Amino acid sequence: MHARPAAGSGERNDAHLSEITGFGSNPGALRARLYLPKNLARQAALVVVLHGCTQNAASYDHGSGWSELAAEHGFAVLFPEQQRANNPNLCFNWFVPGDIRRDSGEALSIRQMIEAAVVTHGLDRKRIFLTGLSAGGAMAAVMLADYPELFAGGAIIAGLAYGSASTISAAFDRMRGHGGPSQADLQRLLRAASPHKGPWPRISIWQGSADTTVVPANADA
Questions:
Q1: Half-sphere exposure of 108 (CA within 13 A, CB side)
Q2: Domain hosting residue 199, numbered range
Q3: CA dihedral 72, 74, 75, 77 (to 10 degrees)
Q4: Is the pLDDT of residue 7 over 60?
Q5: Catalytic status, residue 67
Q6: What string of H, E and C letters represents the secondary structure of the chain?
Q7: Domains contained in the chain, number
Q8: Are strands 31-35 and 18-21 parallel, antiparallel or unpaired?
Q9: Which pLDDT tens digit goes with each residue over 109-166?
Q10: What is the CATH number of the domain that holds 51?
Q11: How far apart, in whole angstroms, are the C-alpha atoms of residue 106 and residue 102?
Q12: pTM of the model
């Protein structure tokens, strides 16, 4: 596993983000971008941040300010980054069965880059947190369902429930609040996502009441 300075993206200056390479088999073919503040604490916490569609790590960091918070408080930030070869709109594939199963596809890639960051930089395994926006929020729900033992907590922003769609057409329907599995089916899918029997991470759900892209009904699910 190696971390190296990343070349500029041309969209937002990303010189403050390093790139982790060689972090595993990476079956989801994602990039791993990392921010380590100069005042990184010993056994620091790690926040994993998942961008939305049409965004990349640098642009979402610019808008959300995660690296500024990390510099202020001394924690590390990992930005998994989607590639156009996987999704032309740079959305994480939260609706593709092969990308959301535990130890498969994009979910496994994110798990592998988390492990690489923790091991290489001596981060605190008990303080790994996760957040995501829109498609990144839906993928955050995937990671919390697949690997609940990994995270201390998560924040889902304008996301969707794990297992709510398995095709792109169904994904658009769910975003608009149409159809989808019943609450009982969603709970069954969640319980089947991992063998975890211990305590679950704390989860905070954020949803705009006037959101017309991912309608508020998804927060209730």
A1: 14
A2: 2-220
A3: 50
A4: no
A5: no
A6: CEEEECCCCCCCCCCCCEEEECCCCCCCCCEEEEECCCCCCCCCCEEEEECCCCCCHHHHHHHHCHHHHHHHHCCEEEEEECCCCCCCCCCCCCCCHHHHCCCCHHHHHHHHHHHHHHHHHCCCCCCEEEEEECHHHHHHHHHHHHCCCCCCEEEEECCCCCCCCCCHHHHHHHHCCCCCCCHHHHHHHHHHCCCCCCCCCEEEEECCCCCCCCCCHHHHC
A7: 1
A8: antiparallel
A9: 999 999 999 999 999 999 999 999 999 999 999 999 999 999 999 999 999 999 999 9
A10: 3.40.50.1820
A11: 9
A12: 0.92
AA identity, residue 29: A
Residues in the chain: 221
Please pick, among 67, 109, 134, 164, the residue that the annotation labels catalytic: 134
Of 92, 71, 116, 77, the C-alpha closest to 29 is: 92
Q: For residue 174, what are its two tokens?
A: 């769910």
Burial of 8 (0-12, 13-18, 19+ CB in 10 A): exposed
